[in-house]
Amino acid sequence: MEDFIYRRTQLAETYCRGLLEGGLQNYRSGLFLAAPRRTGKSTFLRGDMLPSLEKHGFVTIYVDLWSDREVDPSVLISGAVQEKLNVFADPISKLAKMTGTEKVTLAGVLSLKLDISPVLPEGVTLSGALDVLAKASGKPIALVVDEAQHALSSEKGSNAMFALKSARDTLNLAGQPLNLALVFTGSNRDKLANLTLDYKQPFYGVQIQRFPLLDKDFAREFVKHYSRELTGSKRLDVEAVYRAFCTLGFKPERLVNAARAAAHTFLETSEKDINRLLIEAAEEIKTKEDEHMREKLLGLTQQQRAVFEVLVRHHANFAPYKDSTLEEYKKFLGKPIGKNSVQSALEALREKGLVWKESFGGYVLEDENYVTLFGSNSQNDKVS
To answer: Residue 34: phi, psi to the nearest 5?
Structure first.
């Protein structure tokens, strides 16, 4: 099957208007979008959002903090900004010669070695570099950070977020046109919220938007795209495609895999109903994914499982050492558990990749799908 890409141009335009025009949908403080992994978020950013921003006159910078999880997020952000500075090396040099570094705050810009350095050199701040870029390009800057929550996995990454907040405050003056647009996305809403919910965090007070999941229009376009290959008695039905899509958590890649499995089975057997095969393939994929998630919990101790179950129940509001939380562990275990044991359990869960710890000490689920898997009844299940 030929690759299928679904464009969401109108949604990108809506976000751009919120960045530029304000009103009820005002994103001048930052646009924060949260959606589960593999639901089309990054595809939308690269294929729709960036082109829309460029159409509106922005110089765009895109960085995916999961592109290399071994590299500190601050280095990835700095490198993306430096790479864009390289593009404007000539105008930056001319600007520096014309006005002098003191007057345009080009701190260190003449020693950047624009064609060599992979990151901003020591002494050059993100705010200063973005200011230089705006002046040299004569355009507003849009910095799009995919999987932005990963910045909180390191102290330097957290500091980079504060630096971007400072750049926003410096470049975007009240009553003036927007000079710096910040677009942050995350595949885990709880993680992303750590940038906005606490007054000690850089973007305190900014609202996180639920990135809209793909809907039945996607299913219609999916059917239309593959109509050349699936015709006659094996034609896909929109309702069946959408049902399979819902089963698979609105994840396009999973739907394509289910459709390929159904098409293969259809060709290899005497089966007449490809739509039923598609739904069965989707259910099989979902069942295997759920089994894999459950298998990751099999090696947990009773205490680790109790802490994990309570975390699933409370999700973003998890407070591991509160008296009421300790009582919940006791309910699961049938006996009390001390704070040191809770700490040990959390660290073990983090090492197993089930729990994520941000640099300021908070804990959230690594995979939010566990909330859906266990549902609201998890608190009623006693550890066996």
So the answer is: -120, 135
Output DSSP code: residue 317: G
pLDDT top residue among 315 and 20: 20
Instruction: State how far the Cα of 69 lies from the Cα of 294, in Å rounded to an integer.
Output: 25
SS3 assignment, position 356? strand
Joined together, the tokens standing for residue 31 give 């646009």
| Distant-in-sequence, close-in-space partners of 202: CB < 8 Å, separation ≥ 6 | 158, 161, 162, 164, 165, 195
pLDDT tens digits along 222-262: 999 987 776 555 688 999 999 999 999 999 999 999 999 99
Are 258 and 282 spatial neighbours (Cβ–Cβ below 8 Å)? yes
Please tell me the pTM assigned to this model. 0.85
Question: What strands, in cross-sheet order, belong to the sheet with 141-146?
Answer: 59-64, 141-146, 180-186, 31-34, 208-210
Look at the alpha carbons of 300, 302, 303, 305 in this order and tell me if their dihedral is positive or negative.
positive
> pLDDT tens for residues 324-363?
999 999 999 999 999 999 999 999 999 999 998 876 668 8
Residue that has been written with the tokens 């390289």 in this structure:
86
Tokens matching residue 35: 């959606």
